[in-house]
Amino acid sequence: MRPAATADSVVTMSDGLQELYRVSQAVLSVTRQMPTRDVLQVIVRSARSLVGARYAALGVPGEGDSFAEFVVDGMTLAEQEAVGPLPRRHGMLAALMTEAHPVRLPDITADPRFEWWPRAHPRMTHFLGVPVRDGDQVLGIIFAASKTTPKSSGFTERDEEILSLFATHAAIALTNARLYEQSRELTVLRERERLARDLHDAVSQKLFSIRAHARAAAVHAERGSAAEAAAGLETVAALSAEAHAELRAVIDGLAPPGLDGLGLAESLRRYGSMAGRAHGVPVLVTAAADVPGLGPDRQAALFRVAQEALHNALRHAGASQVTVDLTLTRRAVILEVRDDGRGFTPDAPVTGLGLVSMRSRAAAASGTLDISSGPDGTRVRMTAPLGEQR
Q1: pTM of the model
Q2: Does residue 215 register a pLDDT over 50?
Q3: How many Å apart are CA 23 and CA 15, to the nearest integer?
Q4: Per CATH, the architecture of 8-183 is what?
Q5: Per-residue buried b or exposed e for 124-151, using 16+ beta carbons within 10 Å of the residue's own CB
Q6: What is the Cα 340 distance to its own chain's centre?
Q7: Which long-range contacts (CB under 8 A, 24 or more apart) does 220-225 make?
């Protein structure tokens, strides 16, 4: 027969479950946070509660003997400001960072590794320090001081075990928070690249055309050709409205204006006609009436590549004619922009955003881009697959 459970064993079991519950709640509180600073603050607050300390802090190492972060719990903001700036890694703080194992003391001031405190620093006795580690790397140190239990002789071995267990989970939460912030930074960089690419592809081309037409209108006005000047100013107004719409689309992250309502083929025809008039070069657009199975992202990519290729041909190639062909096969859509101007070397070092933008857009659309150029002209060919885009 099993011996009957005593009152002492029941109390011990209850305390153990309560202790486990407290650790579980602390871990959940930390893992719910995302920004690093919030994670640090919750770690410190949870650590102080778990071991019953009056004060707790967490130091994250920085360059040299400094701390990149030093978060405190148990002191008011006024008390922290009175203590002064972030501490340096000296004395017991330096020892903990170097030795990277738990330290439990009945009186920190009696330890030979202790050096000094600032004048406004609160007096502390009992001390418990535990490293927050990711493998061999020390991410930080959790400090707890001054046990609050009445007539306590200090932190216990059990306190050390609980805080060490909590520090293991805190390391995971802190690492995840840093990865989260790095991913946010990467997202911001990608968004900046997108804006730069879109502004170059769309708005800068419109602005160049506006400037060209404005100069032509000024020349007509000086020569007394009022009708030609008025026509030029009307074109400037129309181009300005289009540039404004393009800018709105870039800011909102939308497809180029017109694609949603007109479709890719008609948008290419209208843009080719407008660009040809602006530069005085005929642009012939041949496009299928409908392109089924092509998502909005791929449509936008094809339109932007055509736009950039047209811009390069009209502005830089000295072409007398440009053709744009959009053809549909069973598995793909093929865009070709050809001109009869002076060519260039596609593999030469890139000095602008144009070629980089086209290649980037083709890759993002799971497509391919091929550029061939020579003395007789240039051909830009983009192939985009039909079906679901990954």
Answers
A1: 0.44
A2: yes
A3: 12
A4: 2-Layer Sandwich (3.30)
A5: bbbbbbbbbbeeeebbbbbbbbbbeeee
A6: 42
A7: none
Domain segments of the chain as ranges: 8-183, 256-390
CB neighbour list of residue 141: distance below 8 Å, 6 or more residues apart:
58, 59, 93, 96, 97, 129, 130, 131, 132
How many C-beta atoms lie closer than 10 Å to residue 195's C-beta? 13
- Residue 108 DSSP label: G
Q: Helix, strand, or coil here: 160?
A: helix
| Amino acid of residue 105 | L
pLDDT digits (tens, 9 = 90+) for 66-108: 777 788 888 888 888 888 776 776 777 777 777 778 888 888 8
Q: What is the CATH number of domain 256-390?
A: 3.30.565.10
**Which one, of 86, 93, 130, 136, lies nearest residue 114 by Cα?**
93
What tokens were used for 278? 């602006």
Alpha helices in the chain (DSSP H): 7-31, 36-51, 77-83, 91-99, 157-198, 204-222, 226-252, 259-262, 264-279, 296-316, 354-364
- Return all residues near 79 (Cβ < 8 A) that are at least 6 apart: 120, 122
